[in-house]
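Listing S7. Sequence submitted for prediction.
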Amino acid sequence: MKPVTVYTTDFCPYCRSAKTLLEKRGISYEEINLARDAQARMKLQEITGMVTFPQIVIGEQPIGGFDQLLAADRAGRLPELLEA
């Protein structure tokens, strides 16, 4: 299974929703909270081209935010995205 990284910030309801969805599906993830880490924010922008939260990266592929994660889940594509 490819590693999942969730880039979050404090007080973000969509970040909480993304983490909850992953937990309900039994998908482990690494959370990187960027509330106080300007360098990590710059790295996230390089990886994804985005600075909104959350940003979900599966393996090395950015998939977007919560809406894109939810759409992939509803379409049954999460297992495919997670395959190593």
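Caption to Listing S7: primary sequence and predicted structure tokens for the chain studied. The CA atoms of residues 38 and 44 lie 10 Å apart. The helical segments are 13-24, 38-48, 66-74, 78-82.
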